[in-house]
Amino acid sequence: MKPLYTRKLQRTPRESKRHTPGQANDMNTLLSDGLLRLHRQDLRNFTLTHLVSGLDDEACNECEQRCGASTSLSGYTEWICAQEPRLSLGWDWQLETSMTPRVVRLGLPRTNILLLDGERDPLPWNESLHVLATFIDTFDWNTPAFHAVCQRYSF
């Protein structure tokens, strides 16, 4: 298995505290915690590629026993970045059937990314996940994820 890499974000005394785009791109080092540390503005420089999507097992067995009962459709999706540094972002989704059916993200993502603030300090984990969730909601992941599920489970 290929190790996860993270950016080494060390400053020399002469370096400005301001981040310049691409400044840390060449400084990937393996850290023992496996987290990839990057600035939130760096997210827009990465192209995410769909890796896999699937359905969750039905959690409610009694739902199957009631004729005409509604059911829910939910699952997971995983996206990766093909370029260095390798990042991975996964989250759960659910098919909403109110008005127009659509796939929506559920909860916070699972990832190897820890975002940094403007001073290059790590954000608290939960805050980092919320920023990543907002990032996820900015691109069309819904269509490719749902199409992948339809292809995977078609007979």
Give a short summary of the structure.
With 155 residues, this protein is an alpha+beta fold.
Written description of the protein model:
Helices cover 19% and strands 30% of the residues. The protein contains three helices and eight strands; from the N terminus they run ββββαββββαα. It has helices at 61-65, 125-136, 142-153; strands at residues 6-7, 28-29, 36-39, 48-55, 74-81, 88-96, 102-111, 113-116. It is elongated.
Protein traits:
155 residues, alpha+beta, Nuclear Transport Factor 2, Chain: A, four-stranded antiparallel β-sheet, two-stranded antiparallel sheet, 3 helices, 8 strands, elongated, disordered N terminus
Task: Find the count of extended strands (DSSP E, 2+ residues).
Answer: 8
Strand content: 25-35%
Shape, principal axes of CA atoms:
elongated
CATH architecture of the domain at 34-57 and 70-153: Roll
Oligomer: single chain
Give the overall pLDDT as a whole number.
Answer: 78
Describe the strand arrangement of the main beta sheet, using strand numbers: 4-5-6-7
Q: Which stretches are low in confidence, meaning pLDDT under 50 for 5 or more residues running? A: 1-30
The profile of the biggest β sheet is: 4 strands, antiparallel
How far apart are the termini?
Answer: 33 Å
Order of helices and strands, N to C? EEEEHEEEEHH
Number of helices: 3
Helix share bin: 10-25%
Q: What topology emerges from the helices and strands here?
A:
Blueprint: E1 6-7, E2 28-29, E3 36-39, E4 48-55, H1 61-65, E5 74-81, E6 88-96, E7 102-111, E8 113-116, H2 125-136, H3 142-153
